[in-house]
Amino acid sequence: MSATHPLHISDDDVRFFDEQGYFIYHHPLFPQDKFAAIQSYFEELLADLPQGVRTEAMDVPHFAYPKLFDWLLADEVLDLVERFIGPDIALWSSHFISKPPAHGQIVPWHEDSAYWRGRLDPMEVCTVWLAVDDSTAENGCMRVIPGTHSNGYSNYVAVDDASKSVFGTRITEDQFDLSTAVDLELKSGECHLHHAKTIHGSNANESGKRRCGYTMRYMPTTVKYVPNERWTHGIYLARGKDRAGNEYAEPGKRYEPGIRAIYQR
To answer: pLDDT tens-digit profile of 216-226?
Structure first.
């Protein structure tokens, strides 16, 4: 842990995450210069997007852009994650979700676990959602339904208008109580965490300000990754030791087998 960039996490914070399935960290995740560097790098990636690809669709960018490991494997983020999942940590995935002003898409209510079912055993993933921009209720910040991480496999139906949605399906309305939803507002540079089974989503961005977040997803190395012929995916040993007999890709290099998965939406 850096003496010049201390970690502000208490045992009560960890208990809150365990009970509620999310936690808001209202402190800068990275030192200012390191955070400014990822902001700048994101702008480079944004400018390099293929024509016609929406900015919400920048999935697993570290496969093609290994510079991102400078942040994904940084002590600042791994120290934070260690408090919640322990010292043996694997990097599962990452995703830039950037909602442009005025027409940023909805992220329908979902559980991350539903998209990864059968790939991880047990389903224990902690997502760190870094606010590249300020994230507010007005520009479509993430919202969670507290305490919904005991299941992770709700019933889904097709969304009403797929052109306005990041995903094509949503959890049926009878599966949760919308009145309990919490807006996870952040200042640029702060982050929040959520469990893979927690129900969450976000509204459209109809404001005049962009809303970008970088999701960095980690799991304890006791989780077994089950490969699938239809979906080539690399995981990385971020800290500590492997505990499940997984095979890991080499950080800092392009992961060629999985690059085709990027920008699919």
So the answer is: 999 999 999 99
